[in-house]
Amino acid sequence: MIGLKRIFVTLAMALGLTFGLTFAAHAIAPGEALNDPQLETRARALSAELRCLVCQNQSIDDSDADLARDLRQLVRGRLQAGETDDEIRTAVVARYGEFVLFRPQFGGHTFLLWMTPLIILLLGGFWAHRLLRNPPSKPVE
């Protein structure tokens, strides 16, 4: 019984340590933040939607790459100029391509990207239905 308790305590400590150390590590420098809290909130939301083209699996808000810093400055500069979030997204996509978006727009060119999970799910359901409806016969001995 003591061994089981020790395992649970060790597991709880490991999970606590794991989740305690996994916090959002923003790469934004203190001088980059905007003075207006509303604009800074919008800048952070936009930065979370934009992919760092150097790191590719991080947002520009989380990346230390120079290009990510430049994109953060671009976003903040356009926000200060009074542009809307959609205008900023459109400008960034026009400059860097749709790959910069973590969630690309749904369209003819991204149809397969968006529909592949649904197609796989439907094919799996069809296969499972056929398998359950007509189970394989057992060999006669």
Write a short abstract of this structure.
With 141 residues, the protein is an all-alpha fold. It contains 5 helices and no strands.
Keywords:
141 residues, mainly alpha, Helicase, Ruva Protein, domain 3, 5 helices, flat
Strand content: under 5%
Q: Within the CATH hierarchy, at the fold level, what is the topology of the largest domain? A: Helicase, Ruva Protein, domain 3
Parts with pLDDT < 50 across at least 5 consecutive residues: none
Please give the alpha-carbon distance between the first and last residues: 49 Å
Largest sheet: none
Number of strands: 0
Describe it.
With 141 residues, the chain is an all-alpha fold. It folds into two domains: 25-102, Cytochrome C biogenesis protein (Helicase, Ruva Protein, domain 3, Orthogonal Bundle); 107-133. Helices cover 59% and strands 0% of the residues. The chain has five helices and no strands. The protein has helices at 2-21, 37-49, 66-80, 85-96, 111-133. α2 packs across α3 (66-80). The longest helix has 23 residues, at 111-133. It is flat and about 80 Å long. The model has no long low-confidence stretch (mean pLDDT 80).
Indicate the topology:
Blueprint: H1 2-21, H2 37-49, H3 66-80, H4 85-96, H5 111-133
Helix pairs in contact: 2-3
